[in-house]
Write a sequence for this structure.
């Protein structure tokens, strides 16, 4: 069984979905520490003028002592703003009407009070848009222990993984020998960002995957995999 994992991020980029596509099981790793000025609560889209950040305001007080699934969203004023920016940016894209209504419904849902809950709802929706059937579980539903590489190893053991896909930064902390001793193969993703048709001039990479979906529709999943490995 091939496993991958990632912390909750808002409107994720293409590379995350490539990693999920390579996996039999994906762990929504909602038990790590919240990171300020990271992608936990923000991401970029492309407008006619620039690539603005869409940032979900959160209560980050004492965040060093909190898991990301404990981080609360602050207010609801941002919801309408995000939806408006997305609409203005992509309403002329070929596949806008195919995805926007449901995305807007999720972002606008004031019953969603926790950042990780919002990110999870969006992730599941985007996986369906990309027709990715990988099973998803939440780390908070298990009792994983340890830190850094040992935490990942414990997750692999408890989820019965035979192979684990680290992101590219995993090379900085993965203790590979420990995985080998537990008969778990380790891989490191090296994602090559594809180029596709965008609105508004020159191509800009590393945006939210919604930029790809609105512009390329049902071809998006194939584009995410293009010029990248399809099996590990």
């Amino acid at each position: 069984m091939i496993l991958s994992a990632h912390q909750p991020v808002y409107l994720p980029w293409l590379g995350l979905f490539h990693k999920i596509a390579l996996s039999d099981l994906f762990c929504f790793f909602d038990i790590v520490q919240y990171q300020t000025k990271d992608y936990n609560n923000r991401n970029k889209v492309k407008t006619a003028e620039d690539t603005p950040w869409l940032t979900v305001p959160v209560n980050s007080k004492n965040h060093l002592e909190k898991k990301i699934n404990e981080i609360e969203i602050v207010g609801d004023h941002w919801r309408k703003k995000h939806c408006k920016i997305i609409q203005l940016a992509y309403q002329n894209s070929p596949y806008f009407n195919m995805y926007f209504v449901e995305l807007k419904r999720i972002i606008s849902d004031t019953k969603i009070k926790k950042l990780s809950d919002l990110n999870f709802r969006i992730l599941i929706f985007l996986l369906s848009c990309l027709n990715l059937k990988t099973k998803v579980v939440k780390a908070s539903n298990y009792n994983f222990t340890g830190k850094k590489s040992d935490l990942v190893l414990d997750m692999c053991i408890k989820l019965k993984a035979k192979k684990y896909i680290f992101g590219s930064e995993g090379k900085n902390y993965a203790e590979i020998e420990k995985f080998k001793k537990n008969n778990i193969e380790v891989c490191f993703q090296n994602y090559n960002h594809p180029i596709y048709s965008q609105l508004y001039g020159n191509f800009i990479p590393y945006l939210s995957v919604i930029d790809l979906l609105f512009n390329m529709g049902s071809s998006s999943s194939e584009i995410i995999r293009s010029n990248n490995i399809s099996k590990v």
About this structure: The helical segments are 14-21, 77-90, 96-107, 115-129, 148-158, 176-181, 209-216, 220-225. The chain has a mean pLDDT of 95. The CA atoms of residues 162 and 184 lie 5 Å apart. The beta strands are 2-6, 25-28, 42-44, 53-55, 135-138, 163-166, 185-188.
